[in-house]
Amino acid sequence: MGLFSFFRKKKPAESGKPLVAVVLAAGSSERMGGADKQFLPIDGVPVLARTLLAFEAAPSVERVVVITRSERVIAVQDLCREYGIRKVTEIVKGGATRLESGLIGADAAGDCGYISVHDGARPLVTPELIERVYAAAQAHSAAIPGVPVTDTVKRVEKKLTAKGMPPRDELVAVQTPQIFDADLLRGALRKAAASGGEFTDDASAVEAMGMSVYVAEGDAKNIKITRPADIYIAEALLFAERDGAEAGV
Fold first, then answer.
1. Using an 8 Å Cβ cutoff, are 95 and 103 in contact?
2. Cβ atoms of 129 and 177 closer than 8 Å
3. Residue 216 maps to a domain
4. What is the CATH number of the domain that holds 138?
């Protein structure tokens, strides 16, 4: 059970078991100079609010579970009320690691067919991207968004370049939301937790079980807020999109 629950009548899924989104917002924001990045404004709207509004607008998402720090539960509740976010049904205290938080979120998602796991600090995610990855997950059981890598990537050992360079056309930068069959994801995360291994995303846990994960087309604007400069980059992307829309581009 979450520390806080919104009680409302559940809307029945139109077909089959629903898609439930788990939004991870329990990080320490260590690289943000002490500020909680989830509540920093981007063009006047907090990062987490922008993220949740995208899932609110995604037609296939029935419910949203937010994983946050215990001291932020009430703040997230207030955020949802202020911005009219009604799909959030659970606000749950996260774990000590991303893997723990992901497993907590997957369990809190309850009875559903698919689970979408998304970084709360990716506020420029769009309903269109969510729906695109969901369609791929329905076809392949596991799907992630990815964008082509444009930089040259080298292997480094002890700060020295190592021999061998992976072909750039075989590389993608992986984003979220990552969407999986619910039972598959829960089984993969439990196995990963039992193994004690380190996994930087949920797809890695699924892949560790020998499963392949489909890579859907990502969105270059779907950046993750990690450092202070990322706030300005996100605002610039928003302004550019708005200017383009006004110009009819």
1. yes
2. yes
3. no
4. 3.90.550.10
pLDDT at 10: 39
Q: Tell me, letter by letter, the H, E, C secondary structure of 113-136.
A: CEEEEEECCCCCCCHHHHHHHHHH
How many domains in the chain?
1
Domain coverage including residue 134: 4-143+175-211+222-246
Rounded mean pLDDT, 162-182: 89
Q: Is 225 a residue whose pLDDT tops 80?
A: yes
**pLDDT-derived band at 6, boundaries 50, 70, 90:** very low
Q: Does 79 map to a domain? A: yes
The Cα-based distances of 27 to 37, 72, 147, 159 in angstroms read 9, 11, 24, 28
* pTM (predicted TM-score): 0.89
**Other Cβ atoms within 10 Å of 170 Cβ, number:** 7
Do the beta carbons of residue 84 and residue 49 sit within 8 Å? no
Q: Is residue 15 part of a domain?
A: yes
